Amino acid sequence: MYSVTKRLDFCYGHRLLDYDGVCKHPHGHNAVVELEIQTETLDRRNMVADFTDIKRAMKGWIDRELDHRMILRHDDPLVASLRSLGEPVYVLDSNPTVERIARLLFDISREQGLPVARVTVWETPTSWATYRA
pTM for this structure? Predict the structure, then answer.
């Protein structure tokens, strides 16, 4: 099995509803994402995937949808307030934990046609979550 890993970064804000801790307040992170792409055979270029193709597919989506946005749960009262102010928001069905963001990026990678095996999102330099196939 062959694999390559592409590292991307983005900034986002979020908060966790129904949570008893400091993360219940709006705050931000400088996320680092690792996308591991895996195949059993190499392509005609002898690559798992071209790093530029991975970046084009995923960094483009991240920049359009998540970068410098508040990522909030669909029923968070901040959603309507921020939208009324013209602020960018990305809405999830569940709390926007780092685990949930890793799963989101995994699913989007698959939708983009990438044979992703693992997505790790570093929320801070010492805290991260991983979602695997």
Answer: 0.95
